[in-house]
Design a protein that fits this description.
Elements (H helix, E strand, L loop, with lengths): L2 H30 L4 H21 L9 H17 L13 E3 L2 E3 L1 H21 L7 H4 L1 H21 L3 H18 L3 H20 L2 H11 L10 H12 L25 H34 L3 H25 L17 H23 L1
Antiparallel strand pairs: 1-2
Helix pairs in contact: 1-2, 1-11, 2-13, 3-4, 3-6, 4-6, 4-7, 4-12, 4-13, 6-7, 7-12, 10-11, 11-12, 11-13, 12-13
Length: about 375
């Protein structure tokens, strides 16, 4: 087992549990009359995720490349994504499937399904054709079958609507395709073709257009569209070098919306200061280092692409979350992996890390 990768994952989960309680205790007490409400729910998902991670750590990742496993995973996630549209809305979106008090987001599961499918499919193609040739010569037999399921997932998630998750899946898929040998010309062409679509999705939807305007001019409407970003920047700036102290954040007292979910990094910056903020970034850098090491040392192409996809998923989400909290990109609902409150995200990240740990173990043995 890669002790560095395992240790940094546990450290991020424990840090997340502490900060979720710190950021949500007052809100939970007011809304649910129980200060530990969000912490208890997150702990339950953490235990479930750790059990899954330990199980996948001890399962040879090569079993995942069996067609029955790949096709079953892709089809089940597809049915879950479609099924959300036949259920009641939650927060004006079709993102959740509820099982009593618990709920799961199929869009989070779609991230793993996309990585598994692309790693399996592209590895099959690489066995028959040169890495840098197949994507240039065979559009119908390679690029379209590879991108087809991904585009279906992305379209369904956009209809929920959840543009942030859709873009995250597209980014990870592009990373895997490039690593497998796709020419940068195909990637540039796909990016150019997607720009008008992204432009229309932002400008023709009022709340997305408002987010873009608040990102460009947050101080123009500090009590309206720019409120969340302004409060986030206040929290980050208030922390200074050492922070105001654990549990001492003022922005979490009903000033900063979603303080325990997408904007938990702002609370970390306020309470733990520059030191805590850099510590979190350092933990993700270590995760990326060990993940890339596992990918480069994997004994086969499937393991390399699978490890690279998982590492790209974790790092890209962390990078986007940091950028959103610091006002570097428009606000998107992307949680901070392992740290933000959210059972579906935590479960998926731990399951993915279990696979990554097994790949690392196989690489060490090889």
């Amino acid at each position: 087992m890669d002790r560095w990768l395992f240790g940094v994952t546990i450290a991020l989960c424990l840090l997340g549990a502490v900060m979720i309680f710190s950021a949500s205790a007052i809100t939970a007490d007011k809304e649910y009359t129980h200060s530990y409400y969000f912490l208890i729910r997150q702990t339950a998902w953490l235990v479930l995720g750790l059990l899954g991670m330990f199980a996948l750590m001890r399962t040879d990742y090569r079993r995942l490349r069996e067609p029955a496993v790949v096709y079953s995973t892709v089809c089940v996630v597809l049915l879950l994504l479609v099924g959300t549209f036949f259920l009641d809305k939650s927060h004006a979106t079709h993102r959740w499937i509820r099982f009593g008090p618990l709920g799961i987001q199929p869009s989070e599961l779609a991230k793993l399904a996309v990585i598994l499918y692309l790693a399996w499919f592209l590895d099959q193609k690489r066995r028959h054709k040169a890495a840098m040739e197949f994507c240039k010569q065979d559009f119908l037999q390679t690029i379209l079958p590879a991108a087809g399921p991904v585009l279906i997932y992305v379209c369904l998630i956009l209809l929920q609507p959840d543009m942030g998750t859709a873009l995250a899946i597209a980014l990870v898929a592009t990373t895997i395709l490039f690593a497998a040998g796709m020419s940068w010309k195909w990637i540039a062409g796909g990016f150019a073709a997607s720009l008008p679509i992204i432009y229309l999705l932002i400008t023709r939807v009022s709340y997305r257009n408002a987010r873009l305007s608040s990102f460009l001019h947050p101080d123009s409407d500090p009590q309206g569209a720019g409120f969340q970003l302004m409060q986030s920047l206040i929290a980050v700036g208030s922390g200074g070098f050492t922070g105001v102290g654990l549990m001492e954040s003022k922005q979490k007292l009903f000033y900063l919306p979603e303080a325990h979910t997408d904007f938990i990094y702002a609370v970390i910056c306020e309470e733990l200061g520059y030191i805590g903020a850099i510590l979190v970034i350092a933990l993700f850098l270590v995760y990326g280092w060990r993940g890339l090491r596992a990918a480069f040392s994997a004994p086969d192409g499937f393991g390399r692409l699978l490890a690279l996809g998982i590492t790209a998923l974790v790092l890209s989400q962390a990078l986007v979350n940091f950028a959103v909290v610091l006002g570097m990109v428009p606000t998107k609902g992307i949680p901070l992996p392992f740290v933000s409150y959210g059972g579906s995200s935590l479960l998926v990240m731990l399951l993915a890390t279990g696979v990554l740990l097994n790949i690392s173990q196989q690489a060490t043995e090889t």
